[in-house]
Amino acid sequence: MEEVTLLIVLVIALALFFDFTNGFHDTANAMATPIATGAMKPKVAVTLAAILNLVGAFLSTEVAKTISSGIIREGDSGILISPELILAGLIGAIVWNMVTWLYGLPSSSSHALFGGLIGAAIVGFGVNAIDYGVLLSKVIFPALLAPVTAGLVAFAATKMAYSITRRYDGRPDGRSGFRYAQIFSSSLVALAHGTNDAQKTMGVITLALVTVGMQDAAQEGPQLWVVIACALAIALGTYMGGWRIIKTLGTGLTAVKPAQGFAAETSTAATILASSHLGFALSTTQVASGSVIGSGLGRRGSSVRWGTAGRIGVGWLLTLPAAAIVGAAAAFIAHLGFWGVMLDAALGLGFIIFIFLRSLRDQVGHETVVNEVAASADAVKITRPSKRSGTVR
Amino acid sequence: MIDWGAFVVVFAAALVGTVVVVGLYALGLRLLVVGGRVPVVVPAEFTDAITVLTPAEIASAERKAAKAARKNPLTPGQRRLAAYTAYACFALCGLAVLFGIYLIVPFFHAGA
């Protein structure tokens, strides 16, 4: 019994740490564009993002249910997944997340989490452990379709915003007024992030609690203390992640204008909120990137830099299988019994400390801190000079 | 096995929501400009990503906006109408957002 308690404490601690890194990693999804256009002061933006992530985490539990009772067949009809395997999956997710963070590869925290869990489950119970129908319909297809949806919608919205406000007589067009709108639209993105990403962790903790009988499998949603802990972890991570985006905005987002930023943020928020509502666990990073690219293409004189866009795409495709491999390796070690699990935990902890020390060494200015959303803005080239004298844009 | 309809729903909901919100706000801005109240919103802080505007440039933009307002061909009544319609657009835009949130939060539908 003590071993089980220790395991559950480890799983919860790792899950909350994952949640924290998720917030840390994703502050920029909501706040990169408003900071880039000057809609908000960076510190205000980051604080607002943290608060709204906290609120968002309480709004819905659909995504948590997808994870806790969907993808892996558990209970009477299927296999009984053990907390050891969940631990292994989490280690896979965290390790891959931190590797991509250190090397500045575009990646998705969400897919890292799914990859890790799937890899661990396959090692534990063979390929039949996964409900491929749910995996395809709630994870893989949303992952492919959501960024495209967000991109198309942002494209249409940007075209519309520009054509409604366009003036052919050269008089002021008032487009700088979109800055006020951006305060609200980016707040919505932060809220949406809370509804989708915080829940992934809630789902994992709930799954772990069910496996050791601390929660009845019939009770589908997460318990209240789980919701509160996850909400706090992601909000804290979001707040702590702020320093990073404040320093990194010199890189890619210089081309984003207020009208475009507003259209992109609204599209991101709408896509994530609609998806969360239907229980699709998608990657907020990818949706935000899709929107930024789509809205860039919605402006006149824009073209895609296919090299940059391709690099982003490869990073996305790689995440799930790579995290699955790490998760599978961790599950393999966990199979050695109690000491295997302890070895896993020690290796995971050692790795986290190693990455942390490495990141301190090369701090800011290194390409590691290039954010995915900023990188995706870089995938669109705007050729038309848009600076006119006498207007604030 | 795969619920394709759900993807169509997400796409449609995202498209309609975004077009309504962005469209209303853009229309509101346009009406403000038509009514001679051109907003000049300067970046809150000049981070690395933003070209720094000098106070002179900002003042010049504000003068230009004021000039456009003076040369406005509309009568004062028409201008007021345009401005009020603009504010109505902003209000509707806000309501659309609130309605969207209302739709997705289960708390509001607990009775159903």
Automatic annotation (TrEMBL), chain A:
Q: Does the keyword Nucleus apply?
A: no
Record keywords? Membrane, Phosphate transport, Transmembrane, Transmembrane helix, Transport
- Put simply, this protein is called Phosphate transporter
Q: Where in the cell is it found?
A: Membrane
Looking at the keywords, is Cell cycle present? no
Topology in membrane: Multi-pass membrane protein
Transmembrane spans: 42-64, 85-104, 110-127, 139-157, 224-243, 309-332, 338-357
The species is Labedella endophytica
One MF annotation (Gene Ontology) recorded for this entry: phosphate transmembrane transporter activity
Q: Which family does it belong to?
A: Belongs to the inorganic phosphate transporter (PiT) (TC 2.A.20) family.
Which GO biological process categories is it annotated with? phosphate ion transmembrane transport
Automatic annotation (TrEMBL), chain B:
Transmembrane segment boundaries: 6-27, 81-105
What keywords are annotated for this sequence in UniProt?
A: Membrane, Transmembrane, Transmembrane helix
Q: Which superkingdom does the taxonomy of this entry point to?
A: Bacteria
Protein name per Swiss-Prot or TrEMBL? Peptidase
Q: Which organism is it from?
A: Labedella endophytica
